[in-house]
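quick one before i forget lol
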Amino acid sequence: MNHSPETGRLHLVDALRGFAIASIMLLHNIEHFDFYYFPENLPAWMKASDAVIWEVLFFLFSGKSFAMFALLFGLTFFIQSDNQAKKGKNFSGRFAWRMVLLFGFGMINSAFFQGDILTIYAAIGLLLIPLSRLPDRYVLLVAVFLLLQPLEIYHFFAAMQQPQMITGDPLSWTYFGKSTSYLSGDSFLATVTGNLTNGRKAVLLWNYENGRYFIISGLFLLGLLAGRKKLFIWSEQNSRIRKRTLVLSFLIFLPLFFLHRNLEPLIESRAMRDSAAILLSSWANLAFMLVLVSGFSLLFQLPPFHRLLNVFAPLGRMSLTNYVLQSVAGAVIYYGFGLGLYQYTGATYGLMIGILLTLVFVVFCTWWSRNFRFGPLEGLWHRATWIGTDKK
């Protein structure tokens, strides 16, 4: 059910990755692909609907979908490295080159969507090469250290020493504020230029300000460990582990979520409150991501749900293609040089468009997977990765 002997693919991993892609697509659509604009000329009932959909989707997927993607990135690194090791080959050099190629895909994606994550994954992914040589216990220690967000903990304790210190808005907001001019404009060239200059500064700063670099690095390592321990292969033992993970993660999530939502009456200092908010939200998101992964994995092994959830597998097998294609589609749909629908769509319409796009992508990917071994960009990435060899 979870593994194909013919291809060596883990269908559960494909389906999880596809689920992450679909949830990212829904979020990006209600956000107008990083163009936050809330139309005023909508009826009251739709504004109420928009508010509910915004809260629900952000609760379910914001900070969780990207984390799931990062976890699976580390797992994929292990699978590829392990496959080469079984042949007596070292994958390190090819993986480094693979990250260079991913960075290139990310820059293309950034031209359409300034919130691109591929370039960041490519840069941080290089750390997997040296860290993957560590024994399991040291990999786990480094992962936990990173996921605790040591820099933000330092900021919190520094704020404790000066609780009355004045803190301004994050620097990234300045750059995001400038993006309105080119995202709303009718020039494609100006949009691309803005995304690749101002937009990249905004996104890189935002990820730094919210501790995402630590989170991504830690999740890469957890994915590597999950691969070593074969946690995504079905077994009775892994099923028990998933059940325990589901319960424990949910129990950890609840107090973190409650504290994050009630910080203002608990902490008077804004400087301390800002740091605490980043820490609590990132830890709560990690816990809920594990709830989603373990819950999805448990349902995937049950016949009534397997067929339904396996619909996401073709999306996951073509995750690079889908990630870039949704950016292109989103830019054309919402930005000023395209249809400019940012002016007319709130979260309700955005969710409808996101669901429609997801269905179109599922149909396309299902058809493509039946006729081709790799997705369009996956095929290019594979061939370029193994250039100079007879691997096809």
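fyi Confidence is low (pLDDT under 50) at residues 4-8.
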